[in-house]
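May I ask you to comment on the folded chain given beneath this request?
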Amino acid sequence: MIKEVIVVEGKDDIAKVKSAIECECIATNGFAYGKKFINILKKIDRERGIIIFTDPDYQGEKIRRELKKLFPNAKHAFLSQEKALKDGDIGIENANKEDIIEAISKVRPTMIEKEEIFTVKDMIANNLANGNGAKYRREQLGNILGIGYANSKTFLERLNAFGVTKEEFIDALKRIDNNAR
C-alpha cells in the first residue's frame, strides 16, 4: 500500500485509481472544495503526505497549481492526455490500470530549494521550445520523466522543481530520438 494519500478530482477517479493500486484516495470534487477540505488535506499531508494526481486538462492543471501553492511538499503524478482520453472526455477515470500504475511509479517530490539545473537555452538546444515539433518532444519527454506535458515555460519550471537530473534528461532525449528513427 502506498503511504501517501492520492488527491484526485472525483469519485470515478478514486474508483479507477483504487482498482489499479492499493492506496487511499481523496477527491477535490473539482473546484467545489473549500476550507474544510483544505484542513483535512493539511492533516493528511502532515501525517502521511499527499500525491496530487489531477486530470491532464485545463481544470485539472488549475487545481494542481492551487494545491501546489498550499502544499509545496506534495508529490505529483502525471498522466498524458492521450492516456486519459475516452470518447472525447479527458480524465483519470478513463486511463487503464497499467498507465495509472506507471504514473504513480514515476511520482516526483517537489524540491524545496529549487536548483536551476535547466535553462531556456537547454529547452531551445533540445528542440523543446520555439521549434517545429517542440510540443511533441515536450509531451514525449514529460511522459518518460513522469512530469507531464506543459507549455515550454511550465515544462522548464517542472524540470527544475521536480529534481530531474541532467543524466535523466539526456537519457530520455536519447530514447525519444531513437524512437523517431
The chain has eight helices and seven strands.
